[in-house]
């Protein structure tokens, strides 16, 4: 088990104190280039495993990304999953629930978009919003929140029982880093679309959000669906840590390629005949007449 897995996993039932976790952590990677080189190798191996997963068609992988605003969810997706085959990979974003979605239970909109067998799906935000923003702004009562934690664990157990491996990442940045990223967005026109009217007003609830994340991870990190708190102030280290954990998770799935559906010996014989025929035709083909 790699040191990223051990260092950042939230052990089931353990209290979570994010103030004791350093969002600037980079281990001993003082050289950014060395980390980027390892990230590229990881992404290549992840892409091969994803192709095998798609070919096998028996298991699936659900990756949940949660973070404060400007925490790096989009950047993680772009830098860790871009090498995957789009045929078997999908990103699902969760926005504010629609009136139709609000008229159902909080998991109603989630089940139809979980990964099918052979697929990798990345949730950019997720059903955990029901115990994060709704806890912070008191849209849900304490009793409702307790029910939701239990419902989430049951839902994830159901997915796991049906062959979906789940891994969940909290991208941990501090309040100062968030403000730096907000300000940088203002200076970059290509980032202006990310700016929200709620960016600065929501910062007054920073401590409440931290507490909400801590409680959610404590109550919903299980052996089958673990949470990882990833130091995310340093973007390249964030990407490397996520890739290492994804790689180890996929390797542990013991993906098996399906047996061929044809007689390979007979197919090789037919291929040899066809190659021989093609060589013969090429050899006997008359050259085109010159004009």
Automatic annotation (TrEMBL):
<comment type="similarity">
    <text>Belongs to the polyphosphate kinase 2 (PPK2) family. Class I subfamily.</text>
</comment>
<dbReference type="GO" id="GO:0008976">
    <property type="term" value="F:polyphosphate kinase activity"/>
</dbReference>
<dbReference type="Pfam" id="PF03976">
    <property type="entry name" value="PPK2"/>
</dbReference>
<protein>
    <submittedName>
        <fullName>Polyphosphate kinase 2 family protein</fullName>
    </submittedName>
</protein>
<keyword id="KW-0418">Kinase</keyword>
<dbReference type="InterPro" id="IPR022488">
    <property type="entry name" value="PPK2-related"/>
</dbReference>
<feature type="domain" description="Polyphosphate kinase-2-related">
    <location>
        <begin position="32"/>
        <end position="255"/>
    </location>
</feature>
<keyword id="KW-0808">Transferase</keyword>
<dbReference type="InterPro" id="IPR022300">
    <property type="entry name" value="PPK2-rel_1"/>
</dbReference>
<dbReference type="InterPro" id="IPR027417">
    <property type="entry name" value="P-loop_NTPase"/>
</dbReference>
<dbReference type="GO" id="GO:0006797">
    <property type="term" value="P:polyphosphate metabolic process"/>
</dbReference>
<dbReference type="InterPro" id="IPR016898">
    <property type="entry name" value="Polyphosphate_phosphotransfera"/>
</dbReference>
């Amino acid at each position: 088990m790699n040191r990223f897995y051990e260092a950042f996993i939230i052990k089931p039932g353990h209290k979570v104190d994010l103030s004791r976790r350093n969002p600037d952590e980079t281990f001993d990677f003082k050289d950014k280039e060395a980390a980027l080189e390892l990230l590229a190798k990881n992404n290549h191996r992840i892409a091969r495993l994803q192709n095998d997963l798609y070919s096998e068609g028996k298991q699936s992988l659900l990756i949940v990304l949660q973070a404060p605003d400007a925490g790096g969810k989009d950047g993680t997706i772009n830098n860790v999953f871009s090498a995957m085959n789009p045929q078997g990979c999908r990103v699902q974003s969760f926005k504010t629930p629609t009136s139709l979605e609000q008229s159902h239970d909080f998991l109603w909109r989630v089940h139809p978009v979980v990964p099918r067998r052979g697929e990798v799906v990345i949730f950019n935000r997720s059903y955990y919003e029901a115990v994060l923003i709704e806890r912070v702004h008191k849209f849900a009562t304490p009793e409702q929140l307790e029910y939701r934690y239990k419902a989430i664990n049951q839902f994830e157990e159901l997915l796991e029982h049906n062959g979906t491996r789940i891994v969940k990442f909290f991208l941990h940045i501090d309040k100062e880093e968030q403000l730096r990223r907000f300000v940088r967005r203002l200076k970059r026109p290509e980032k202006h679309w990310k700016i929200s009217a709620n960016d600065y007003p929501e910062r007054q609830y920073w401590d409440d959000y931290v507490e909400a994340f801590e409680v959610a991870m404590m109550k919903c990190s299980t052996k089958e669906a673990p949470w990882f708190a990833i130091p995310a102030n340093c973007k390249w280290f964030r990407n490397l840590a996520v890739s290492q954990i994804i790689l180890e998770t996929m390797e542990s799935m013991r993906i098996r390629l399906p047996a061929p559906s044809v007689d390979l010996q007979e197919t090789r014989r037919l291929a040899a005949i066809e190659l021989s025929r093609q060589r013969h035709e090429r050899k006997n083909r008359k050259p085109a007449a010159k004009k």
